[in-house]
Amino acid sequence: MTSPAISPAKLFHLGGNQGSPVLLIHGFGSDRHSWVATALKLFGRHRVWAIELPGHGDAENDVGEVSPEILARAVAEAIAELPRPFSVIGHSLGATTSLHLAKLLPDDISHIAVIAPGGWGTSIDHSFVEALPELRTPEEAERLLHRLVKRERLIKPQMVAHVLNMLERPGRREALRNIARGILAAPPPPMPSTDQLLVIWGAEDGINAPDHVRLQALRSKALLLEDVGHMPHVEAQSAVNSALNAFLPL
After folding, report:
1. Backbone φ/ψ region at 30: left (φ over 0), alpha (ψ -120 to 50), beta
2. Domains in the chain, number
3. What is the pLDDT of residue 168?
4. Domain containing 208 — which CATH number?
5. What does the pLDDT read at residue 5?
6. To which H or E segment does residue 38 belong?
7. Among 115, 98, 93, 129, which residue's Cα sits nearest to residue 191?
8. pLDDT of residue 117
9. Contact in structure between 20 and 86 (CB atoms under 8 Å)
10. Alpha carbon of 203 to those of 11, 65, 136, 157, 225: distances in Å?
11. Rounded to 5 degrees, what are φ and ψ at 89?
12. How many other CB atoms are there within 10 angstroms of residue 189's CB atom?
């Protein structure tokens, strides 16, 4: 049972009926739907699941004093029936959570791909994290979400409406405020023990600035995408999907 201080994470089978299992973990203020373009390219080769973290998507909003490590424990409890070994792909907060999950389940995770991993950057835009739970109007939401990408046209009215609808769920704003505080107070996540690591980052990420020293040290395990912001899996779908399909075991 998940601790009563935090709601359970929710697991969804997105598709695929053959190949190795893959778990997707979304970023702050997002949900499983952010992975649509990624999941569609994985279905032919993998069985694909997505988690929704407490305070996000269809999960409940009791989070209390929370941290990425606590979120990882909630994920670990939600995926008890997931086939082993599996690969994990996480974005931003989901990447940070993935790195903690790999520490919790070192024998269960074969490959880990992290996209714009929170806590590994040189700086984080506190104003973005703090502002997201407070959005009230489409104009405010559009301005803030434009900061996620280099090409602002990718932020469609449907995305803006989805974010605002999500924020109107009872208890959601307070849950995200608590998670935001936990993100900003958290130490850097651990380096996974597996050698099967891939790091993907947008060179123009203004939310979580890439650490070029770390990326250079990782060499072939790192992919830095030029003219791309904080959401490479949305903004550079082809490059990210190619890298993931080459990286993940069949």
Report:
1. beta
2. 1
3. 98
4. 3.40.50.1820
5. 79
6. helix 36-42
7. 98
8. 98
9. yes
10. 31, 32, 30, 25, 6
11. -125, 125
12. 24
Q: 């499983």: which residue's tokens?
A: 32
Distance, C-alpha 111 to centroid of its chain:
16
Shortest CA distance to 116 belongs to which of 30, 7, 179, 57?
30
The pLDDT value given to residue 144: 98
What the block records as the tokens of 23 is: 């778990």
**Which structural domain, as residue segments, surrounds residue 134?**
10-247
Concatenating the DSSP letter of every residue in 199-236 gives EEEETT-SSEE--HHHHHHHGGGEEEETT--S-HHHHT
**Which residue's entry shows tokens 């939600």?**
78
- Domain membership of residue 81 (yes or no) is yes
Sign of the CA dihedral with 166 first, then 181, 132, and 91 last: negative
37 is a domain residue: yes
Give the Cα-Cα-Cα angle 38, 41, 118 (nearest 5 degrees).
25
* pLDDT < 50 positions in the chain: 1-3
Q: Is 132 left (phi over 0), alpha (psi -120 to 50) or beta?
A: alpha
Q: Where are the beta strands (DSSP E) in the chain?
A: 10-15, 20-25, 46-52, 86-91, 109-115, 123-124, 197-202, 208-209, 222-225
